[in-house]
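For the sake of transparency, this paper describes our internal protein records without simplification. The record that follows is passed on verbatim for readers who wish to inspect the format:
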Amino acid sequence: MEKAVRFYEAGAPEVLRVEDVNVGEPGEGQVRLRHAAVGLNFADTYFRNGTYPIPLPNGMGVEASGVVEAICPGVTNVAVGDRVTYTGFLNTLGAYSTVRLIPAAPLIKLSAEISCETAAAMTMRGLTSAYLMRRIVNFKAGDTILLHAAAGGVGLIVSQWAKILGLRVIGTVSTEEKAAVARAHGCDEIINYSHEDVAKRARELTNGVGVNVVFDSVGKNTFMASLDSLKRRGTMVCVGTASGTIPPFDPQLLAMKGSLYLTRPALADYIADPAEKADLAGEIFGHVAAGRIKIEINQRYALEDAVQAHRDLEARKTTGSSIFVI
């Protein structure tokens, strides 16, 4: 019997249940995919706790990799036996499973250089990093970025990509252990927000000027410090809300702090166009295949450990990428 993680009400990690499931034959436009590894992302907690409302009961997870077992007639972008990966939003919910039916459209074929574990650890994080680095700001060598959660999965990829582009990276972390991880992956300077004033230190590190761009995945707790770290006409990129959603504010605040730009992008809008998705995927998977960007899988869980995995994620006990090994 195959397994899947489902939940029947929004709430704490304990709402997650591992259940036996029957997986039938693929319908129109679908494939049956046997997972090898499943990605664990902070976005998963937003579905679970109700930040992203979805019909319940439902499955959990939006990213995984594996081997195509069966296809519906008419599916042409993949074949039985192909190694593939995917990420998405509502159209890929249900990744926490051993085998599943899934639309063929989101699937990305894997090259021989990319293992299924690496793919599950990097597809969502990698595509997120790709649009952050290639679609939001036209970076030039010498620009400085402030990167929150620098030791996280996206943070480690962004740091390495930033060095390819010749950028200076100031990363924020909560512990010395995470600081060491962030430095090893390209951070030039580290701010430990547990005992340092982020905005004050960012100004000190830029001779009072401020940074060109802030990538802020924390949200409520860091929003004002992020704005105060920016140079005049700098760009604030709200990537996530790990500490909670940002309270409403008067846009006049952006003018008062230096005619700042602010955006709250979502991955779904950068991979909705198949051609753009292919371009972004080609860039990130190309960097990884060539060894220019390394994917750190620092936590591996069994599917039955989904509750503990979510606890660890929310307690900020993880670094790099986390996956479920099937």
Notes: The mean pLDDT is 96. The first helix runs from residue 42 to 49. The two ends are 14 Å apart (CA to CA). The CA atoms of residues 67 and 83 lie 5 Å apart.
